[in-house]
Amino acid sequence: MGRGRRACLLLTLMLLGMWPGSRAAPHIHLDPGRTEPPTLPGQLQPLAPGTLTAPRLPTLTLTPPLPGVVKVEYLSNGHIEVAGAILTLGAPERPEVRARVLALATRVLAARPSLSEVDLSVYDRSSYGGFGGPLPLLTASVPRARLNDFLAWTQGRGAYDRVWLNPVSLPAPPRQLSEPVRELSVNFLGSLADRAADAVHHTTAKVLGGVQGGLLYHGLPLTRLAALTFDDAPHPIFEPLLLDLLQRSGIHATFFVIGRNARAYPYFVQDMISQGHEVGNHTYHHVRLPPLSAAQAALEMQQASLVIRSITGQPVRYFRPPGGDYTPATLRAASQQGLTTVFWTDDPGDFQNPGEAVLQRRYLRHLGRGGIVLLHDNAPEMLQVLPAFLQLARQRRVVLGTVGQLVGEPPAPYPAGSPR
């Protein structure tokens, strides 16, 4: 073997973690016999292995109780307080849905005067399976200041832009079970040759920075910018609180949204865009793509982009694979749809509920220029620690912004006639 070829082989083996003394890169091993855990009623999303139990949100008890109310929770970000209420209805009760949601919104806001908003989700009682189950029949965001507008809509006296009625007559994408995975490490799955090529590409992209071959691992060298990204959005209760914190700080972020979540809560996605944030693709169902066929994986991306574009009026530019799992087919499908695949450099693991002190230490350790910070929109501890993290970035002179800002792309034009 020639000296040049031998050196190339040694480099490839080291990058793959196969050379003695080298550090092996983490890879996910697919288990075809793995079964999905049951979806628990009311849970916010599936739990990944190793995740600690999140602190329970405080609940509100309505006296006297309203029939069909599963629970009412509330949370504060230190500035505003938002409640989330879940109502289930049987088939005979569906014609009463507008009167029921009005009564629920009115009672919740009256029961807790400190609330700025209540988010409502109405499900079919016979098929209700929590947040990850079948989509709601109706959702609505009711700020206290707009209760009269909501009242007028329930009585058929006007439109209301913060409500979604499930168009059950329209076909939904083939259902995939949302998977209990979280983005801890970037995991390439493929043959030895594919892995060797990806390792070289990965290293080159990290050294050069910016978008390389449709992939983004790190910002350009010497930049003061870092991208702030949130996965799995949008969620009721959490989205208004997070958007409020970002708006108070004057910081814009990129939200990688799950298509089914965006479909059920379109007004939160509109809020993201109107407040200057960027919306990316995180598949329609939040599923690991490598086990799917190439056609199924492409459909997951395509359906999510269709939902996002129908809400925002803007093309979707960026994609993040759930769990960080990808293959050559995943990258080809993203590229064919005009999507840049975005990974991350900094993941403090907010979804694991490690405790606020641990989360704060991880923020301190990982934040850097040119980085891509990965957070989750519905992690309660993240909401509590985020203001201190934003202050830390200012102290380190790191400018937080969107993925588009990190790579120097102009912002997408806001569609004419849309509310700001």
UniProtKB/TrEMBL annotation:
InterPro entries according to UniProt: Glyco_hydro/deAcase_b/a-brl, NODB_dom, Polysacc_deacetylase_ArnD
Residue ranges occupied by any NodB homology domain in the UniProt entry: 224-401
GO CC annotation: membrane
Enzyme class: hydrolase
Signal peptide: 1-24
One annotated GO molecular function: hydrolase activity, acting on carbon-nitrogen (but not peptide) bonds
Domain of life: Bacteria
Transmembrane segments: none
EC number: 3.-.-.-
GO biological process: carbohydrate metabolic process
Keywords: Hydrolase, Metal-binding, Signal
SUPFAM superfamilies: Glycoside hydrolase/deacetylase (SSF88713)
PANTHER family per UniProt: CHITIN DEACETYLASE 1-RELATED, GLYCOSYL TRANSFERASE-RELATED
Protein name: Polysaccharide deacetylase family protein
Native source organism of the sequence: Deinococcus sonorensis KR-87
